[in-house]
Amino acid sequence: MINYLKIENGQLIPSHSDTDETVWLAVEKPTEEEVDQLVTTYKLPKDYITGVLDDNENSRFEGLHQNTLEKPALMLLQYPHATISPSGYTQLDTFPFAIILTTDGKVITVINNSADFLKQTFTTPIPNSELPIQESLILYLSWQISTCYNRFLKELIVQTNKLEGELKVSTENSQLYQMMDIQKSLVYFESAINSNLEVLNMLYNARIFTDPRAHLPKLHDILVETKQAATTTSIQLKLVDKVSDTFSAIVSNNLNNVMKILTSLTIVLTIPTIIGGIFGMNVKLPFANREDAFFWIFVVTTGTCIFVIRRLKKRNLL
């Protein structure tokens, strides 16, 4: 699907076709016909588009060191997206996002999976900038991706803190599955953010920018945001690893405590069973001829149970 967008009063407006006013072609899950159409119309290398169809494609750039944009240039970043893991819990994956600069001053973005930050971008006014539209969009989209990582990281931190609060009473595997999904998300984040950081650093020396000094402040903000996400991911990954180890130990300990209590209760409940079995034998036994025999047997049984319970509690076994 190809969405044609133009700018009116700083706002992105959908267009039904590709016109001279079109500045952005947002392509999502392109078909073979759409890929051929874009390649033919804008004289693009086919791998600029088909590379995004591989979810494991790494961040890279091509053609950004041209003095003038004589052929299309590509900057490929990775963005985060929430999915459902095989265990049934929310997991954050990263997918490739291609930003293609055409020779006629337009921007083409290509994704193979939905992107929440793009939906927000379509409804948000483009910041006023004296830069050409291609430079403004490439910096604006890079900023949106960087802030998207930090937003998801905050959600992961909240989930981790919530799981920590459940440690005291946890004896189930569900929390372990959730912790595993958080670890997987952070591993994906660490790899993707570091790859993005390498590409963004290369923009400092990109020759296609008409005025390098003009884009440096915005690029600096993007790099600061990306480095913050990288640092947070690294720290959180180490913490989650420690919490996961602690989590496993606590779950095992909680299960041991439950088994300890059940075993102690079994011992206590065995006492009446033994005494009842003895006095149920068809032989001559003490108290057999007393009318209050049941009362005294009950007293002895109860006293023995109370004594055993106190001894078990004193030894922290109940």
From TrEMBL:
Protein family per UniProt: Belongs to the CorA metal ion transporter (MIT) (TC 1.A.35) family.
PANTHER family: MAGNESIUM AND COBALT TRANSPORTER (PTHR47891:SF2), TRANSPORTER-RELATED (PTHR47891)
Ranges annotated as spanning the membrane: 261-281, 293-312
Compartment(s) of residence: Membrane
Entry protein name: Magnesium transporter CorA
Cellular component, GO annotation: membrane
UniProt membrane topology term: Multi-pass membrane protein
Coiled coil: none
One Pfam family of this chain: CorA
Keywords of this entry: Membrane, Transmembrane, Transmembrane helix
GO MF annotations, alphabetized: metal ion transmembrane transporter activity
Domain of life: Bacteria
InterPro entries: CorA-like (IPR047199), CorA_cytoplasmic_dom (IPR045861), CorA_TM1_TM2 (IPR045863), MgTranspt_CorA/ZnTranspt_ZntB (IPR002523)
Keyword Transmembrane belongs to the record: yes
